[in-house]
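Technical annex, item 7. During the second reporting period the consortium partners agreed on a shared format for inverse folding records so that results from different sites could be compared directly. Each record opens with the tokenized structure and is followed by the designed sequence. A conforming record, contributed by the partner at site C, is shown below for reference.
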């Protein structure tokens, strides 16, 4: 499942690749880090997500493999969205996932919604994702710097972050995930088996009244069950 959600420097549904770089190599100064803002998880209608490349650091490229994996597994890891009042949204990180979901004609996207993020902090967050999360070449970073400078959007903090990243070498390795707790696969599988058994019991009860549910509720349930069926077929084929 190497291609699952492979944008923003992640593959296999967000698992970073490669060894972490030395902290001093890519760490941004405190003044260059985005300030904290209010963040809330949300399922956002995808037709309200603008096709805005302002924070896109690299081309989307071919998303067919990513779309295949999203069709099998559903979207597990959220993208980063910024609210554009009153009811529109700008992508900060996750352009490939949005493109893949649109390819699949999905109507919603799972997101972390930033409701009060400034222009500068949104740019710094997008830059940090490009620099720290995925191997990125000096040529790619140089093009980003030139584009931002030409657009008059290269703030002092963004310039400092890019220049430090450009000074590290030909290619930056992805950032590690030291804060994430290591998960034992067998324990996770055992826990999932128990929870799936409980879900199956609930589904058996729901089957008796399925015909009386609202059409939208029935379709949503069937959509999730199709994901499960596709995942079973995928696992049995491994």
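Designed sequence (site C submission):
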């Amino acid at each position: 499942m190497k291609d699952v959600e492979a944008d923003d420097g992640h593959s296999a549904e967000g698992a970073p690749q490669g060894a972490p770089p030395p902290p001093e190599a890519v760490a941004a100064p405190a003044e260059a880090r985005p300030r904290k803002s209010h963040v809330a998880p949300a399922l956002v209608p995808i037709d309200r997500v603008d096709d805005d490349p302002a924070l896109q650091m690299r081309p989307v490229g071919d998303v067919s493999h990513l779309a295949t994996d999203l069709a099998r597994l559903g979207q597990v890891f959220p993208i980063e969205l910024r609210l554009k009042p009153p009811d529109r949204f700008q992508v900060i990180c996750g352009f490939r996932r949005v493109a893949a979901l649109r390819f699949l004609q999905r109507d919603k996207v799972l997101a972390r919604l930033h409701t009060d993020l400034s222009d500068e902090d949104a740019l710094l967050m997008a830059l940090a994702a490009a620099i720290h999360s995925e191997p990125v070449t000096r040529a790619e970073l140089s093009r980003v710097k030139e584009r931002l400078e030409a657009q008059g959007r290269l703030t002092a903090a963004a310039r400092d972050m890019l220049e430090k990243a450009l000074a590290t070498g030909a290619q930056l390795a992805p950032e590690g995930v030291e804060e994430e707790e290591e998960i034992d696969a067998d324990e996770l599988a055992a826990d999932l088996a128990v929870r799936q058994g409980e879900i199956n019991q609930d589904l058996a009860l729901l089957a008796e009244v399925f015909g009386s549910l609202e059409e939208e509720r029935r379709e949503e349930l069937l959509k999730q069950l199709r994901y499960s069926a596709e995942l079973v077929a995928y696992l049995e084929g491994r």
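The chain has two domains: 10-172, 185-236. Confidence is low (pLDDT under 50) at residues 1-34, 170-183. All partners now use this format for quarterly exchanges.
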